Amino acid sequence: MTELLLRGGRPWNPGVAPELADIHVVDGRIAAIGADLAAPAAEVIDLDGALVLPGLVDTHCHLDKTLWSGPWVPNTGGRTLAGRIANGESRRAELGLPNVDYAGNLLAAMIAAGTTHVRSHVDVDPEIGLAGVEVVRAAAERHRDRVDVELVAFPQGGLLRRPGTAKLLEAALADGVEVIGGLDPAGYDDDAAGHLDLVFGLAERYGAKIDIHLHDGGSLGAWQFGLIVERTRALGLAGRVTISHAYAMGQQEPDEQRRIAEELAAAGVAMVTCAVGEAPVVPVRVMAGAGATLALGNDGIRDLWTPYGDGDMLRRISTVAYRDRLVADTEIELALRAGTHGGAAVLGLTEYGLTPGAPADLCVVDGPTPAAAVVALPPRRLVFKRGRMVAANGALLAAD
Ligand SMILES: [Zn+2]
């Protein structure tokens, strides 16, 4: 039995002001949280009043695309979706992508910044096949005691318009990839019903979750929310379907946003927002008010799509809060909740958070309140994965 006592931290649960408490960890799980806990056999770490957040959850990134830790590559992606897709595909071989070192080094940076769970989309198409899946799996394996990584088989180049891609997605699911992706069923693939029927059909056959990139804006995007909700209901997939980006949500009038959020909540469909560039952000308060699940992610990080990004989920939470004009502490905490508990819901984690019985996945930061930490982005003092310290003061610790 291994025991750890985190003395005098301020554990955070959504909606509750953090108070001084000890956290007793036994065999990687939280055994108790309370004042003045006695654990004579435990290794003791004094937290000096620091905030203890649950491990941050990045539910949307592209580890297979990253150039992290490699040479600087000036961006040649241009400004259109089709242009970026073409640029990404045509230059990946020349740049050695996908790359296990780049993906692994990016994971290291994410962990050091407090992330304990990741969902990564991985490109699948007839040219690259399942190479990206193998590379990201190998990178995740390097950090398997530090972070849990879930993969999405993602048809970045289109599904119906790229013959052969559907078969490869199916092969990925048969090989154990947990989630099937989709991409603008109407706006890019030109057949919303056909695209969604294929994706939902494969998900049903292989017991996979679904995560669809939906950049389509305005009424075209909102119409597809309805198609996705309808299919989620018909197949009983509540809690297993996510719409990523969902730019159209941020473009609706407030009444329509509320109606959509209520429909999402009732059907068990989540949204993920990344607050990328000038793209509309899914309204955090509206989603919370309706009881709909919202999660966050970094999206592309230093890749052929964007030269920006550092993998720091707390910074992403801060960006979302800023872009959505969340200003009261209670509002900013909603963004923090999305980047933690919201992400856990999208990943389907049944044990998560600062509660007895849950794995001790923790991110310790200094700050007067959780909202202040989201604004100030203090260094991550300590990061724990299943009760083991994996990073300190923003740096990854070597495995023991
Ligand atoms: Zn993406």
Automatic annotation (TrEMBL):
SUPFAM superfamilies: Composite domain of metallo-dependent hydrolases (SSF51338), Metallo-dependent hydrolases (SSF51556). Gene3D superfamilies: Metal-dependent hydrolases, Urease, subunit C, domain 1. CDD domains: Bact_CD. It holds the Pfam family Amidohydro_3. Residues 102-394 form the Amidohydrolase domain. PANTHER family: BLL3847 PROTEIN, CYTOSINE DEAMINASE. It comes from Nocardia neocaledoniensis. InterPro entries: Amidohydro_3 (IPR013108), DNase_TatD-rel_CS (IPR018228), Metal-dep_hydrolase_composite (IPR011059), Metal_Hydrolase (IPR032466), Metallo-hydrolase_Enzymes (IPR052349). One of its GO terms (molecular function) is hydrolase activity, acting on carbon-nitrogen (but not peptide) bonds, in cyclic amidines. This is Cytosine deaminase. It comes from the Bacteria.
